[in-house]
């Protein structure tokens, strides 16, 4: 099953917590899973339960200057020059993946500057080609932990994403951004869009999210409570699924996984 799931949303809403836990849950089912860290803060490894010592040895793809040059024909940092926009990437996932608990394979992309920023430099070109390859060509489950803006997905890649989950906190700022992500994602051709509420504390917030999902016209897949156990997992530098497998928050993430399987079967 080649399920392709992207997780997006405003900074700090819980994208990495959700993406990492989903990847682990799919891996636990025996599926082959790639977890893609496409966020410059590069902390997906923590939510996957990969030790910091392992992470220290990982160079993000965008910073592998020799590889970028070999594949695109140009050195990172160079601009204005000619380089290959469609470099060969098919060997990269298996060469540079790191395998973590539940057999989840992590690939760290590093900083991806958005094309709207004016720079489609060689490392961007390589990362975009790699994301596209993973989503379009691989049979594995692929879970993408994204930055807020999703422009760097590219149209062809976005169309092959089975589901995008927009994580929102109960609050107008996170919701405004969700609206913009929705527009972008629809424009790019993402097949299915859902929202997930996170850090939900009381009834007013529940109602806020229910109304928000109606207004956005997106199904609310789950409402994950604000859960001290999840915060504690971070405090203790542990993966949420390892530290708090029975927590109320994790129960909701498990629900998300099941709903995705149903929806996309
Ligand atoms: N349901 C929850 N209850 C309590 N704390 C949570 C919950 N979900 C996430 N957190 C905490 O909120 C913080 C941000 O979560 P996370 O890193 O998953 O968000 P993010 O959207 O990926 O952030 P960034 O934009 O920085 O990548 C973390 O410290 C995490 O432990
Ligand atoms: Mg994150």
**CATH topology name:** Rossmann fold
The CATH H-level superfamily is P-loop containing nucleotide triphosphate hydrolases
What is bound: which ligands? adenosine-5'-triphosphate, magnesium ion
Spatial order of the strands forming the largest sheet: 3-4-2-5-1-6-7-8
Q: What is the helical fraction, as a range of percent?
A: 40-55%
CATH architecture: 3-Layer(aba) Sandwich
What top-tier CATH class fits best? Answer: Alpha Beta
* Strand percent estimate: 15-25%
**Tally of discrete structural domains:** 1
Low-confidence stretches: none
The biggest beta sheet reads: 8 strands, mixed
Q: What would the keywords be for this entry?
A:
12 helices, about 260 residues, binds adenosine-5'-triphosphate, binds magnesium ion, single chain, globular, eight-stranded mixed beta sheet, alpha/beta
Q: What report would you give on this structure?
A:
This protein is α/β, with parallel strands linked by helices and 265 residues long. It has one domain: Rossmann fold, CATH 3.40.50.300. The chain has twelve helices and eight strands. Helix 1 (15-28) packs across helix 12 and helix 4 crosses helix 6 (122-137). The mean pLDDT is 92. The structure holds adenosine-5'-triphosphate and magnesium ion. Adenosine-5'-triphosphate (ATP) binds at residues 9, 11-17, 39, 41, 198-199, 224, 226-227, 230-231, 234, 249.
């Amino acid at each position: 099953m080649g399920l392709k799931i992207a997780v997006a949303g405003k900074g700090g809403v819980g994208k990495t917590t959700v993406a990492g836990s989903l990847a682990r849950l799919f891996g636990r089912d025996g599926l082959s899973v790639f977890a893609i860290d496409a966020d410059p803060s590069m902390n997906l490894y923590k939510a996957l339960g990969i030790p910091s010592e392992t992470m220290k040895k990982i160079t993000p793809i965008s910073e592998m200057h020799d590889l970028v040059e070999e594949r695109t024909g140009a050195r990172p940092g160079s601009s204005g020059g000619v380089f290959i926009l469609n470099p060969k990437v098919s060997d990269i996932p298996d060469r540079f993946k790191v395998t973590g608990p539940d057999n989840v394979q992590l690939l760290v992309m590093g900083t991806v500057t958005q094309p709207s920023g004016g720079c489609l430099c060689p490392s961007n070109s390589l990362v975009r080609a790699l994301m596209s390859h993973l989503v379009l060509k691989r049979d594995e489950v692929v879970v993408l932990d994204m930055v807020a803006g999703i422009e760097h997905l590219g149209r062809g890649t976005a169309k092959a994403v089975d589901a995008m989950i927009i994580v929102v906190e109960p609050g107008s700022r996170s919701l405004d951004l969700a609206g913009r992500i929705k527009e972008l994602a629809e424009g790019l051709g993402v097949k299915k869009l859902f929202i997930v509420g996170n850090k939900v504390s009381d009834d007013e917030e529940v109602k806020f999210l229910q109304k928000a999902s109606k207004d956005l016209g997106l199904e609310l897949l789950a409402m994950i409570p604000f859960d001290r156990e999840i915060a504690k997992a971070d405090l203790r530098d542990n993966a949420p699924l390892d530290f708090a497998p029975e927590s109320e928050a994790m129960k909701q993430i498990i629900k998300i996984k099941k709903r995705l399987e149903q929806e996309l079967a």
